[in-house]
Design goal:
Layout (H helix, E strand, L loop, with lengths): L1 H9 L2 H4 L2 H23 L3 E6 L4 E4 L1 H7 L3 H4 L4 H4 L4 H14 L3 E10 L2 E16 L5 E10 L1 H19 L3 E5 L5 E4 L1 H7 L3 H7 L12 H11 L1 E9 L5 E12 L5 E9 L1 H6 L4 H7 L5 E6 L4 E4 L1 H7 L3 H4 L4 H5 L7 H8 L4 E8 L5 E12 L5 E10 L1 H23 L3 E5 L5 E4 L1 H7 L3 H4 L13 H12 L4 E8 L5 E12 L5 E10 L7 H17 L3 E9 L5 E9 L17 H4 L5 H13 L3 E7 L4 E10 L6 E8 L1 H51 L5 H31 L8 E4 H18 L3 E5 L6 E4 L1 H17 L6 E9 L2 E8 L23 H4 L6 H11 L3 E5 L7 E8 L4
Parallel strand pairs: 27-29
Antiparallel strand pairs: 1-2, 1-5, 3-4, 4-5, 6-7, 6-10, 8-9, 9-10, 11-12, 11-15, 13-14, 14-15, 16-17, 16-20, 18-19, 19-20, 21-22, 21-25, 23-24, 24-25, 26-28, 29-30, 30-32, 31-32
Helix pairs in contact: 3-22, 25-26, 26-30, 27-28, 28-30
Length: 886
């Protein structure tokens, strides 16, 4: 049929006499069809714009990005279609005309009329379009929507990451109780390897004596899912309560599987009552969370609040909430009364950010109470709903705009039932057919076409019923008997239940389309320029088959310059792949052979070991149906892959830091509470004791000692904070280290003698002078001596040694005390990394002394290390300070 169209359109009485000219036209048309197939099937948007910024040609992908048809673009300017981009396009055109250079790898983020309110990401290239005389006559634009690629890869990685790194146990099981997979958390929870868990099955980890289990499993079979609390069994036969969520699902073969997600809720059950107030805040953690005291002055301001309002936490602390949030309509008096009564308040208000930008906020404010039940603060959870409000306004206007667009569209538009009858037709379609609307409604496409077109209609309906989009050319018979050729796009429409309810049909009149030899030659050059301007590597190959229709080789027909950036071969055009790579894997021949035979495109990603890059490869059929040509497009996605790995590493670091912070705060609370409790007890004793008596003096001594302990804790906290923030300023002076360390040792001598611990200072015979801060270095030696005394027993020995080694002064503090487990040595100097079973915690204190010592030594340009053979083998700390020559 295509051949008849070319003959009828391109031949005249004179051309029929000229067979050579006809054959030339035919060859040019064949090349044009191949190039147009590349143009239409590329997975990226392509368009050509003249110097007046009018659309000359574009493919369907580009049109879909703007939410308009291809024909609706043609002849219109960028300003008419996408006004927001007109100024940028004018600037780009002027720059390209002035320099003759393309603008490549432009990343654009924003919204389109087809998806208002949805942020999209495109990668674009702007290339000069030249005529035969190499004069710039417009721009070739390529645009690729990379939003879904980024999101899909992230989602896939997130699912794998969740399974492997989940703190909950995840099991893949069968309904009969067999276990097929177990994640690392499950192995830790049940103290078994994955093989052991799979071997014992469900009955080996669940206490099946629970009489409720049969009814729970039966209920899961009926509903497809369950959530219940079971008693689970570890390998050592100890039991623990667990919250279990189980779901039934089928794989692609119809086999039924079950999943089990198990969480150890032992601790959860013990602390559930204490989490009530925290849950009110954490349910909206992605929103702005503002905490204010009873006078409504801000005392906490989270990161999301910084992003929404533009104020940093240090800028708002202590200020009145109303002065920072700045609502057009502040809280009413009734709202304050509700908060005073302990009730939550929900509001919606217009507020202003730091830069006076207006936003609409949905707020939820709830009072918090102390342990006595008294309200001591308020938490406001504010959600920015500005975009949602704007979207609601847009949706209210969209229906009327859509109706107007359909009625005034330059394309023929129809809506038909799945079995064919038309239920809607616009003015343009009625005009194209030459019928009144009333004459078309209720009839189908078969009523307006010749019999030879009926099989095409039947095939289209079958394809649409399978959720497929149909695109092609169709021949109508007008009322006046003339043929009407259209380019037809049909989209199936489905309701919320997935039922096929209608087909949306768009027709573009192509009857008067003219094709001349000059136009064909121009098109050929245009498509070749487009092909060569692609930033992605591209090639067209011809797949070679044997008599059994198996792909055995391929020949390179054409490549663009970018192709060689991703290939280890050069100058491949006209060559067979068997010549270039005799050991080629059969997989590639099968893949491209399948695309050539079926016409189904293929896409894959793989690691190219020859170039050490990740490549995204797309392959699709081009040319006539009887040809075996395939276009292959290669894109380098290495940067995206590396970014995904970096994001994963950063997420793991953030989770570990958050865990360490929470553990440190728990220790801090404990260490502050003990001295305070003792002080309160001492004050109570003083109230009852006779002033000046033994009890009164003993109480004062207790208070004094605990106050010193509190002061020591606070000083440690301040020191570690100053060290971390580089706020400590050393006051250096020329000091004799022999004398300084000897004085420090003498200060602790009585303390060591009381515990019957031998303390020795081995110092050199001559003084060692060094420019240091004597107070801070004394603090460091004191911390090490205090640490040695704390972890030594009666009869142990502590030795302090001072000497020089080349260009360093060496200070060693060693003891024969408790020692340190090897696994704790790497984190011994870290303030937040401490296990509950460490010796430092069992003997009291925050465990900051070594971290402070490390910071002070490093401020002096030195280093400190710790060594221990393990528990009971003592510990040695070695300080190395540089000797700086004057």
């Amino acid at each position: 049929m295509q051949k008849e169209k070319i003959s009828s359109a391109g031949l005249s009485e004179e051309s029929e006499k000229n067979n050579d000219l006809f054959n030339s036209h035919r060859e040019i048309l064949s090349e044009h069809i191949q190039l147009k197939a590349v143009f239409d099937h590329l997975p990226i948007g392509l368009c050509i714009i003249d110097k007046d910024l009018r659309y000359l040609q574009l493919n369907q992908v580009f049109a879909d990005m703007d939410g308009m048809s291809v024909a609706a673009h043609l002849g219109k300017t960028i300003k008419e279609v996408v006004p927001d981009l007109s100024e940028q396009a004018e600037t780009a055109l002027k720059n390209i005309i002035a320099t003759g250079e393309p603008l490549l790898d432009l990343y654009v983020a924003g919204e389109t009329s087809s998806k208002p309110g949805v942020k999209c990401i495109w990668k674009e290239n702007w290339v000069p379009y030249r005529d035969e005389n190499e004069q710039i006559i417009g721009i070739i634009v390529t645009a690729e929507n990379i939003t879904d690629k980024v999101l899909n890869e992230k989602e896939k990685e997130q699912y794998r990451f969740i399974f492997e790194n989940s703190f909950d146990a995840i099991l893949l099981t069968s309904p009969d109780g067999a276990i097929h997979r177990a994640n690392p958390a499950a192995c830790v929870m049940f103290q078994m390897s994955e093989e052991e868990i799979c071997g014992v099955g469900r009955s080996g980890i669940v206490d099946m004596s629970d009489v409720k289990i049969p009814s729970i499993l039966k209920d899961r079979e009926m509903k497809g899912a369950l959530r219940a609390e079971f008693t689970f069994i570890r390998k050592d036969e100890t039991v623990f309560p667990g919250d279990c969520t189980s779901t039934l699902f089928k794989d692609y073969e119809g086999k039924v599987w079950t999943s089990m997600i198990i969480r150890d809720i032992t601790t959860y059950k013990n602390i559930m009552n204490d989490l009530e107030n925290q849950a009110k805040i954490l349910h909206a953690i992605n929103d702005a969370i503002v905490v204010a005291d009873r006078s409504f002055r801000i005392i906490s301001w989270n990161e999301r609040a910084e992003k929404i309002y533009g104020w940093k936490e240090e800028e708002v602390l202590g200020k009145l909430a109303k002065d920072v949030l700045r609502s057009e309509l502040p809280l009413r008096e009734s709202h304050y009364l509700e908060l005073e009564r302990g009730e939550a308040v929900t509001t919606e208000a217009v507020q202003y950010t730091r830069d006076n930008r207006k936003i609409i906020v949905s707020g939820y404010t709830v009072p918090l109470r102390d342990e006595n039940g008294e309200i001591n603060s308020y938490v406001a959870i504010n959600h920015d709903i500005t975009e949602r409000k704007q979207m609601e306004e847009m949706l209210r206007n969209s229906e009327e705009k859509f109706r107007t667009m359909i009625e005034t569209a330059g394309e023929g538009i129809m809506i038909a039932k799945p079995d064919g009858p038309y239920t809607y037709v616009n003015d343009r379609m009625a005009e194209m057919l030459g019928y009144a609307k009333e004459e078309i409604l209720g009839k189908s496409s078969m009523d307006f076409s010749s019999r030879d077109r009926h099989p095409q209609v039947v095939q289209a309906r079958k394809s649409l019923s399978k959720h497929n989009f149909v695109q092609g050319e169709f021949k109508f018979i007008r009322k006046d008997g003339q043929a009407l050729w259209t380019s037809c796009n049909i989209s199936p429409m489905f309701n919320d239940l997935g039922e096929h309810i209608a087909n949306f049909v768009m027709h573009t009149d192509i009857t008067e389309r003219k094709r001349t030899e000059e136009a064909l030659r121009s098109s050929e050059k245009k498509y070749k320029n487009l092909f060569n301007s692609l930033n992605e590597g591209a090639c067209i190959i011809e797949v070679i088959f044997n008599d059994e229709n198996e792909a055995v080789d391929w020949r390179y027909l054409e490549t663009n310059p970018s192709y060689y950036l991703h290939s280890v071969f050069t100058n491949v055009e006209g060559k067979l792949i068997s010549e270039l790579n005799p050991n080629l894997e059969k997989y590639w021949l099968e893949l491209y052979g399948k695309v050539a035979l079926t016409g189904n495109p293929a896409r894959y990603e793989n690691w190219a070991s020859q170039t050490n890059r990740w490549l995204n490869v797309s392959a699709f059929k081009v040319g006539e149906n009887n040809e075996r040509k395939v276009c292959v497009i290669i894109k380098d996605v290495t940067e995206r892959k590396e970014n995904e790995l970096q994001i994963k590493r950063l997420l793991e670091e953030l989770q570990q830091n958050d865990k360490n912070k929470n553990e440190f705060l728990s220790v801090l609370s404990h260490e502050l509470r003990n001295p305070l409790a003792t002080i309160v007890a001492g004050l109570s004793l003083m109230d009852k004791a006779k002033p000046g008596g033994d009890k009164d003096l003993r109480a004062k001594e207790i208070i004094k000692r605990q106050t010193y302990q509190l002061n020591h804790l606070v000083n440690d906290l301040l020191d570690i904070t100053r060290i971390n923030n580089n706020k400590i300023i050393l006051k250096k002076e020329r000091v004799d280290l022999n004398q300084l360390i000897n004085d420090t040792v003498n200060e602790y001598m009585h303390q060591f003698l009381d515990k019957k611990i031998e303390l020795i200072f081995d110092m050199p015979s001559s003084p060692i002078y060094l420019d240091i801060d004597p107070v801070r270095l004394n603090q460091t030696i004191s911390n090490l001596l205090n640490n040695a005394e704390k972890f030594s027993r009666s009869g142990d020995k502590t030795c302090v040694k001072l000497f020089t080694d080349n260009d360093h002064v060496i200070i060693i503090v060693s003891d024969t005390g408790a020692g340190v487990p090897p696994e704790l040595l790497p984190g011994l100097f870290e303030p937040f990394i401490q296990e509950e079973r460490t010796l430092a915690r069992s003997n009291g204190g925050l465990g900051l002394g070594l971290a402070i010592s490390k910071g002070i030594v490093e401020l002096h340009g030195g280093t400190i290390i710790a060594q221990s053979e393990g528990i009971g083998c003592g510990t040695t700390f070695k300080i190395m300070l540089p000797i700086i020559s004057e």
